[in-house]
Amino acid sequence: MAERQQRGAAFMACGAAGNVLEWYDFAVYGYFAAVIGRLFFPSADPAASLILSFSAFAVGFLSRPLGGVVFGWMGDRFGRKAVLVWSTLLMAVPSVAIGLLPTYDAIGVAAPVILVVLRLLQGVSVGGELTGSVTYMSEQAAGRRPAFTASFTVVGGVGGILLGSAVAGAVTSMLTPEQLADWGWRLPFLAGALVGIAGMLLRRHLPDDAPAESEKPSGNPIFEAMRSHTRMMFAGFLIATFVAVNFYMGFIYLTTYMNKVAGLDQATSLEINTLSMLVLIAAVVFGGWLADRVGSRQVLFLGAGLMILFAWPLVLLIDHDDAVLALAGQIGLALIVGPYNGAFAYHIGQLFPQRLRMSGFSVCYNASFALFGGTAPMMAQALVSDVGPHALAFLAIFAAFASLAGLMLAQTPQDDRQLAPAQ
Fold first, then answer.
1. CA nearest 68: which of 162, 134, 142?
2. Environment class of residue 345 by beta-carbon count within 10 Å: exposed (0-12), middle (13-18) or buried (19+)?
3. 207: which DSSP letter?
4. Could you tell me the pTM of the whole model?
5. H or E stretch including 271?
6. How far apart are CA 70 and CA 122, in angstroms?
7. Tens place of pLDDT for every residue, the chain, 423 residues?
């Protein structure tokens, strides 16, 4: 029994490893958006530089559907493991390149152009990472707590953002603002190479899952999924909107908000975010565990309902220069978003048959994140500037209603308590 548990733990660690790198790099960019804006998108208006910096952040999401198409096809034709290895490599190389990239003052307009290209490559990588690892882990679980097992992929992503937050906080605390703007912001990007190498070494030992010829789609799995499962793809798109908006607004943008709008210093904002994400990780695992017992659909309904009820009071807490109140607000957000995050990816994957699962899942998931996830920080910043902090609550509630619409539109092929039996 102990040996089996050790193998299971090692398997979940391998499956989640690539997500650590993927979301570490995305997080680091978000946390240093203000510095990157000044260095690569200089403007007389600091707010304009910040919005342009978040626009480059959003660009990385625009190429995610392309990654979903490429890696979805690869996963359904050649197996999920191939996706996991190549997506990790495709993220590590651009991360190092960003860490070495000259600024606008050094090479002019070429600097932001190259930065955008590198963000596009990272987006392609992310387009296959989470969907590939969730699909691989839930299928390899073979009926033994599949939602709980798949939730560790999301834990890897959250852990990557937590690692990015911790590294960014440490660098910010140890360096002066001048040192940070001069060279310190590069260190977290360069450190991404170590995370990538570790992930690739771990994933080399995962069991191969290449499908037999008789199990492969007869044609292009992307076209077949879009043609024969259109309703489920749109439902998955809506279900993913909740995480796309609330995760990137709540745990990427809010660090900038607490610093630039609420009045907390940057180091304190990052420390609050790091503590909140520790709570988020526990809540994600709880969501996967609960989904195996009551059904993933029920967990998602609960999360959306709680967000509609509590988004406004949580924003009131976060919009405060008292660090304790801001921390309470973001922890409350983590307790709502976390369980939803732990169940949603598994749930969307189950909307599709196994032979088309990677393609259908990848396209609808990445389309939602391209439209709403990457733009969430930019939209939040623009709305806060024009409307006020309560705009954050409106965005969160909008995403919750979108997810409810998706859940009502789609029913899983069978009751998801049968798909995910508690064992």
1. 134
2. buried
3. P
4. 0.81
5. helix 266-294
6. 14
7. 444 554 555 556 666 666 776 778 777 887 787 788 888 888 766 777 777 777 777 777 788 888 888 888 888 888 787 777 777 777 778 888 989 999 988 998 898 889 888 888 888 887 777 788 888 888 877 667 888 888 888 888 888 877 877 788 788 888 888 898 889 999 988 887 776 777 777 777 676 766 666 566 667 788 888 888 899 999 999 999 999 999 888 887 888 888 878 888 877 887 898 899 899 999 999 999 999 999 999 999 999 999 999 999 999 999 888 899 999 999 999 999 999 999 999 999 999 988 888 888 989 998 998 889 878 887 888 888 788 778 899 999 999 999 999 999 986 444 444 444 433
Name which of 277, 262, 381 is nearest 318 in CA terms: 262
Provide the 3-class DSSP secondary structure of residue 220.
coil
Check: CB of residue 259 under 8 Å from CB of residue 266. yes
C-alpha dihedral sign at 359, 360, 361, 365: positive
C-alpha 100: how far from chain center? 24
**Which residues are CB-contacts of 78 (< 8 A; sequence separation ≥ 6)?**
210
- Residue 181 CB burial class (10 angstroms; 0-12, 13-18, ≥19): middle
Cα dist from 208 to 94, 288, 324, whole Å: 27, 25, 48
Q: What is the CA radius of gyration of the chain?
A: 20
Q: Cβ distance 209 to 139 under 8 Å?
A: yes
Helices 221-228 and 357-368 sit at what angle, rounded to 10 degrees?
A: 70
- Is residue 25 within 8 Å of residue 122, measured between CB atoms? yes
By CB atoms closer than 10 A (0-12, 13-18, 19+), residue 106 is exposed
Instruction: Give the 3-state secondary structure of residue 45.
Output: coil
Tokens standing for residue 235: 């439902």
Nearest by Cα to 18 from 128, 120, 167 = 128
